[in-house]
Amino acid sequence: MKRNILLTLLLTIVLISCNRQSQLSVESPDGNIKLVFSSSENSVQYKIFYIDTEIIKNSALGLVIKENDTLTNNLVITSSHKNTYDETWEQPWGEKRFIRNNYNEIFVSLKESSGKQRQINIIFRVFNDGVGYRYEIPEQPNLDSIIITDELTEFKFADNHEGWWIPAYRDNRYEYLYKKSALSEIDTVHTPFTIETNDGFYLSIHEANLTNYASMTLASVGDNTLKCDLVPWADSTKVKTSAPMVTPWRTIQITDKPGDLITSYLILNLNEPNRLDDISWINPVKYMGIWWGMHIGRYTFWESDNQGATTANAKYYIDFASEQGIKYLLIEGWNTGWTPSWYENLLHVFSFTQCANNFSFNEVVDYAKSKKVNIIGYHETGSNLENYLAQIDSAMQMYEDADIHNIKIGQVGSRLQLKEWHHGQFGVEYYRYVLEKAAEHKLTVNFHEPIKPTGLRRTMPNLMTGEGARGQEYNAWSEGNPPLHTCILPFTRLLAGPMDFTPGVFKITTTRVHTTLAKQLALYVIIFSPVQMLADLPENYDSHPAFRFLIDVPVDWEDTKVLEGEIGEYITIVRKDRHSNDWYLGSITNKTARETKVDLSFLEDGEVYIATIYADGEDAEYDKNPESYRIDTMKVTSTSSVDLKLAPGGGCAIQFIKL
Questions:
Q1: pLDDT of residue 336
Q2: Rg (CA), the chain
Q3: Contact by Cβ (8 Å): 490, 529
Q4: Do strands 374-380 and 44-50 pair parallel, antiparallel, or not at all (unpaired)?
Q5: Domains along the chain?
Q6: What whole-number distance in Å separates Cα of residue 374 and Cα of residue 20?
Q7: CA 228 to each of CA 122, 127, 192, 430: distance values in angstroms, whole numbers, following the listed order
């Protein structure tokens, strides 16, 4: 009996000792990344090592609720447990069909040692390509309704590294050109925020599974430290919630090469699996649109003598799309409410069911069906959400009744309802509501002026793509995007998720499209989106030999590999078609001409392929002779290589067809 009592006492002492330990650690499955968590009287912190190099120094964790009440003071570890997870799951569509989800996790439970003795949990998951962590507030007697006024999360770096960023809290949302500067010189910035360390590593800070919470921006607070800055409501609070609740995952992707950031699927892996029962109506699409003509001033969005969305013009586009085998057409401006000032912050009142003059919805839909072309719906809210949400059921039902399964939804405006940030908690909840409503009506969604992607497409695969950066339209009516812009996007914005950049402009000399024609082709491989627009006017494609590539290039992929790349300089990506044995290559450069040799070892061993090469012409330059191109063919195998010669602002696109 005494022996049993002694044994029980010893076990109790061991458990108490374990529960009071102030430091815990967890490593990635390959052992290269190590996260160390520590708890002290006034703070909880974490730090991260990569291949024995401390890349994140001790950085604060915590939440602050109203009345400056910090939930992470006087915390002691009450328990912890570790898990290992390893699965491979299949994307219904995407840049890679099969995704491995492999991590080691530590779940840390903490409790205040005095006062209200509230509880909070912190979960850390360490992958081979980075770290994700989140806060969890369980249901408890002393904490019900919660108003979060600050999040203390920090990212403290070992040195004053350089990163690529766009500013937060600006009227044009995410639509700014990227800057590169040292941590000490940055503004408050949006994520993903990509960093090149002085040790030669590459990091990207973002978030995953942004649900019922404010979006995270990053503020520079000195000492090589970035702090989470939650986008506020108009009343200055950050998050309104209740227990139990979890925050989004704070993510840090870590790689040796910048291209490996692109093939990291950590963001997707930190989201929940598909929750839609039937996804048979969800399909990647390639589409044309009555769109570019409006941006370059050939047509108007509104009713006028040169109105873009007319029945006659729609039939012209439908005829061309049908002849070329393009199965989808987007028509913007078909409904009433458009005016010359539609894009201004005036809470315009659009109808989402009533046709503008000279346009017949039923006639156009029926004509498209007769030509085997599908119409893509369009809703422009003008950020007048009260007006939109009052009509959303009837508007989406109209599309469902017409057997339309795709919609583009715009939120043009500096604030939602002239009041709230697009990426605050209000906006996060609005976009989620619209996405769920679309799923009820079997509609896939392409959000413009969106909340940034955080991997929700895994859970709700009807979320296909979105804007969320400066796209092609800026090449129509601004100074245009400089050649390096599309050499930055794959390493920054596109790390978050697909982007509807709308490439494919062939008539370059009359616009501010600062690329060559061959680069426009290459962008279909470089910029991933399962919904890709062929942006130019039909007459600029008609009988053009290079249009063949746009007809052939897929939008749904089996695999993706980054062959080479430096942020803002150049990038070469290859992707394998999900529905054939063919591969496609895209290579682009900034304003500097480049020559490179591409190894084709990604092709299947022992097989012969026909390579059709769409390259810059010998005299091509983005600013002097952008439309010069050449098309060559050659037989290649996995042991072959191809020499690429990229003009200033140029590119190259290659189709590899297995014989």
A1: 97
A2: 26
A3: no
A4: unpaired
A5: 22-269 (2.70.98.10), 287-468 (3.20.20.70), 496-659 (3.20.20.70)
A6: 63
A7: 16, 22, 13, 22
Is there a contact between 622 and 591 (Cβ–Cβ < 8 Å)? yes
How are beta strands 444-448 and 119-127 bridged, if at all?
Answer: unpaired
Regions of the chain short of the pLDDT cut 70: 1-21
Quick check: 480 and 590 in contact, CB under 8 A? no
Among residues 473, 479, 566, 627, which one is catalytic? 473
Cα→Cα distances 460→274, 282, 351, 539, Å: 6, 11, 27, 37
For residues 428 and 85, what is the distance between their CA atoms, to the nearest angstrom? 29
Q: What is the pLDDT of residues 268-295, one digit of tens each?
A: 999 999 999 999 999 999 999 999 999 9
β-bridge pairing 406-410 and 444-448: parallel
Whether 473 is a known active-site residue: answer yes
Only one residue has tokens 């840090």, namely 252
Residues in the chain: 659
Q: Detail the DSSP E strand segments found in 162-321.
A: 162-165, 179-182, 193-196, 202-208, 216-220, 225-230, 239-242, 245-246, 249-255, 285-290
Within 10 angstroms of residue 450's Cβ, the number of other Cβ atoms is 25
Per the CB < 8 A criterion, the answer to whether 300 and 571 are in contact is no
pLDDT for 40 equals 87
Contacts of 303 (CB under 8 A, 6+ apart): 338, 356, 357, 358
Spatial contact of 350 and 338, defined as CB atoms under 8 Å apart:
yes
- Tell me what pLDDT residue 358 has: 95
Orientation of helix 425-440 relative to helix 385-401, angle to 10° = 20
The β-bridge partners of 207 are 250
> Would you give the DSSP letter of residue 356?
P
Supply the pLDDT for residue 509. 83
- Tracing tokens 């919660």 back to the chain, one arrives at 146
Inter-residue contact 191 to 218 (CB < 8 Å): yes
DSSP string, 586-601: EEEESSS-EEEEEE-T
- Residue 384, CA atoms < 13 Å, CB-side half-sphere: 20
Give the distance from CA 344 to its chain's centroid.
26
CA–CA separation, 202 and 566 (whole Å):
11
H helices of 168-298, where?
A: 258-262, 266-269, 292-295
* Distance separating alpha carbons of residues 227 and 220, to the nearest angstrom: 6
Residues 6+ apart with CB under 8 A from 327: 285, 286, 287, 321, 372, 373, 374
Q: Give the predicted TM-score (pTM) of the model.
A: 0.95
pLDDT score for 14: 36
Specify burial of residue 175 (Cβ count, 10 A radius: 0-12, 13-18, 19+): middle
Q: Which amino acid is at 313?
A: N
- Taking alpha carbons only, the member of 83, 28, 26, 23 closest to residue 51 is 28
The SS3 of residue 528 is coil
423 HSE (CA, 13 A, CB side):
26
Report the alpha-carbon distance of residue 464 to residue 458 in Å, rounded.
10
77 in helix, strand or coil?
A: strand
Q: Which helix (H) or strand (E) covers residue 53, if one does?
A: strand 53-61
Please state, in angstroms and rounded to a whole number, the distance separating the CA atoms of residues 561 and 576. Answer: 9
Q: Determine phi and psi for 362, rounding to 5 degrees.
A: -65, -40
- Bridge partners of 49, per DSSP, are 34, 54
Please list the residues that pair with 155 across neighbouring strands: 226
Which H or E run includes 86? strand 75-90
Cα(113)–Cα(118) distance, integer angstroms: 9
- Burial of 358 per CB tally in 10 Å (0-12, 13-18, 19+): middle
